[in-house]
Amino acid sequence: MEVVEEVADGDALLELVEPDNHDFVKEIFLNDDSGDEFLGFDEDDLENDEQIAPFEDTWIRGNLDTRALPFDKEKSLNFDVGDNPEMVDFLRLILDDVFFDTLVEETNRSATDFFATPDSQNLKPHSRFKQWEDVNRDDMSRFIGMIIAMRSNFQELYYPGENIAIDEGMVAWRGNLSFRVYMPDKPNKFGVKLFMLCDSSNGYCSRLEIYYATDQNPSPKGKIYDLVMRLMQPYLNKGHKLYVDNYYTSPILFHDLRKLGTGACGTLRSNRKGVPDDIKNVKLKKGESVAMTNGILQILKWKDKRDVHVCSSIHAAEFVNTGRNDRVTGQVIQKPEAIMDYNKYMGAVDRCDQMITYPAFKRRTLKWWKKVFFHLLMLATLNAYLLYVEFCRKKNRKPVLHRVFRREVVKSLISATAPPLPVARGAANARDMERLTGRHFISKIVQKEGLKSKPLRTCPVCNVPTGKRKTAGDGRKVVRSSYECKDCDVGLCLSLLSFVPYGPYEVGNVILSFEGVTDIMLHLASSKNPLHQQVAVEAIVHSASKKDKCTGLLAKAVPLLQQLIKEADDQVKVRALVGLCKLGSAGGSDASDKQLAEGSTMTLAKVCRKFLVNPSKDIEIRRWATEGLAYLTLDADIKEELVNDTPALKSLIEVTTASDKNVLYPAATVFVNVTNSYDVKDVEPELVELAKFAKQHVPEKHDLDKPEYIKARVHKVAEAGVCSALVALCNTDSKASRELISRVYLAIATEEDLRGLIVQQGAAKALLKLAIENNTEKGLIKASHALAKLSITMNPQTTFPGQRMYELVRPLLSILHLECTALENFEALLALTNLSSISESVRKRILAEKGFSKIEHYMFEEHELLKRASTECMCNLVMSDEVVKLFEGENDRVKLLVLYCGDEDDPLLVRAAAGSLAVLSHSEIVCKKILEVRPHMEMLQCLLVNENVEIQHRGCYIMANLINSNKEIAEKLLEGQMLEILMALSIVDEPERQRAKELCVQSLKKAEEYGIIKPNK
């Protein structure tokens, strides 16, 4: 695809232009010296002073007499695909056979060139390059289909509508490149810049150029001028209206476009050459404007929050209603018509970029041109979809969604010519757990008569990890077993037994209950072969899944396990140790249920810590030691010993950073047990008495599990660095492990003085990920609750900078649920209160996530704290115009706030409700609603005479807004004692009540203006 197209027929172009403009067109489009190909420009290279001079003396104050600019063409589709085309046909209009043939030819040429180099002789034996075959068009079609799934003809296929826009697009690229640009306003701030011309109605990209930043010979009117003219060349003298931003806008450009039958509108930089000084130097107040015209162009300067300059050849300096009311004055907001149209039609390129971003894929490459190629492929797919949408509208059909269109195109490209995949047959893989789910009946291989050697068979599971059979000559050990499965007629190594309990425990228990399996395990454990001992002990340990199922087996195995701890090597010893730890922890956290003799569990814990702190031990041994502690730390005595053993605690944190993922879950379990962050059921005292009466066992809580001991342990664990260690573990895919990490973080965040440490060690970002994705239902709640605690006492802007602050909204709203505890609801509301006070964009995010209804629900709660917290949050939300409109509707929301203002038991609730009404009372509709509440006079009087300075100030503010709303409301309010209260407050001398005094004086002056009261003579 050429970056720039040349003007094919100069005479044909001249026929479209009035005779007076022939010289001008020849200079721009038909002059060989001007350069047909655009290779880039600098921002500072603008118009030539000589070209601007005629403009400087022609501007006068006044309004442009806009002449009609007829649009003599309609938005049209310039192709024929029949009545019922497939979706892929629209893509093939753009990526035609010539495109695919070129890709095929260049791909094969590149491969041929590579095989001619010396590097091709040094390929690895299994390199896929050795199986290279020339690709064809069908192969390339499937390749393009896969690229689209991973996420020039543009101009010829579609003619845009009347309104078009030119702006910059961006292809993300952060590598070294001479023409890489930095654009801070784009989502991808570094990359290759594209200049794009798009239809404002749908975002279809008709023309584009790539910015190369190389020198060239521009025309005297500047490179920006040349760029716009080249992009607009096919659409001149058609009556189009072009919208550009201040990067492109200049008076000379718009003047010449108007001569060529094309209107233009855009924001303008005040320092552009040709802008009159009267526009530059005039000082305006908000809402004021000044306009100047030269008969062809209109330049308008309008003051909103800042000065806005607009240049247009199609708009007069007229103002139109926006349909919105000013919150303070209540008047309809008006804006210049040019700015309204600019905002409406300028976003075409941004819309195109946005739609390309949705299906975009992350593809790493060291070649910038590959990035551009993939970007253009996505642009081609988007344009094909827009062609499909326009086609459906023309045929009065409903188009499918963009993602559905892409999926169907991918299916068509891949499946149309895809050959059947070859079926590779190989031996079973030992690491494939499905290989072990079949039902095997293991038995001893029978000794055959006449043979003296021990009967052994090769285990096909253990010996085929790569799909190829091991042999004794390849230097690798062949594993043979004296056991077999007669039904399958294969030898089976008894390591299979250690895998059985890893699956669903019900299945494992059934398999282990088969006749002879338990005897085999115990027999192997007493063997002198270390491998047999290791496999058997693992099977015994993992069989302990449920208390009622495992106690019997472990009880038989205890003497054997105790013997192995004394005599066996470390690999067997540590596994036997875990078996005893499991038996010792069968009672859980119940202090009265001890499975082993007094002091035995303490001894086991010391041995586990000994293995753990020894860095010379294999990571597998330390993992098993961690698993043993995971069981033993249910005992509060062992928790205290562990947190007071600093080397063991640091070793536990250190072992979590190992590459072995199997250590994560037991290590996280230890931290959960130590911090008591597991779920504890609340037992009703009546049920305890009933159990004692029935002589049933009642679990007892250990003295060392009281709150003060738990708090001390949490501090020790946090200060040892567990927060930063768990940050690295949050990348695990295990939902169960992520839940445990969430529980530990919540336990630490519960301590207010440790929250700064959590943020300091980078756990805030990790918590956000835990609260959003890939976690159990309980884990999501725990992580969200921890985020709420952090947001209550710390500034969310520093704790969650940038986009993370907006991502925080959804987790907090997720725990505003009836199934969550009241504490979780309450702290989520407090966190949302802090968030909603930051900015309007955060409030809009809360509303977009449907947070208003959830927060409002808790305003009706009987729980005092929940009711107060939700009202405080609403006090911040009402600063949003969208929320004000909700209160203005036909509902009783305003009535509820008025009634809360009379609550004598909760001054904080009154303060929040009064604050909400103070903001809402800027609306005249809300003011009328306040007066519709029957006890409104009593409520207002209570606010005005309240001892609390803040409540009194808010009451005076509400009163001032009510009186300022209209005369009728003021007359109703100033009847009776209300006038006396205002007069009394207007003369108070207390310094802390001066703000209330000023508001009362303001209210009395307004009443005087209405003629309701008169000053004393």
Automatic annotation (TrEMBL):
Localization recorded for this chain is:
Cytoplasm
Q: Which terms are listed as keywords in the entry?
A: Cytoplasm
Q: Pinpoint the UNC-45/Cro1/She4 central domain residues.
A: 501-583
**Where is it chiefly localized?**
cytoplasm
Task: Cite the InterPro entries for this sequence.
Answer: ARM-like, ARM-type_fold, PGBD, UCS_central_dom
Molecular functions (GO terms): Hsp90 protein binding
> Taking every annotated instance into account, which residue ranges of this chain make up the domain PiggyBac transposable element-derived protein?
147-385
- What Gene Ontology cellular component terms go with this record? cytoplasm
Q: Name one Pfam family in it.
A: DDE_Tnp_1_7
State the name under which the record lists this protein: UNC45
Could you read off the lineage of the organism from its UniProt record?
A: Eukaryota, Metazoa, Spiralia, Lophotrochozoa, Mollusca
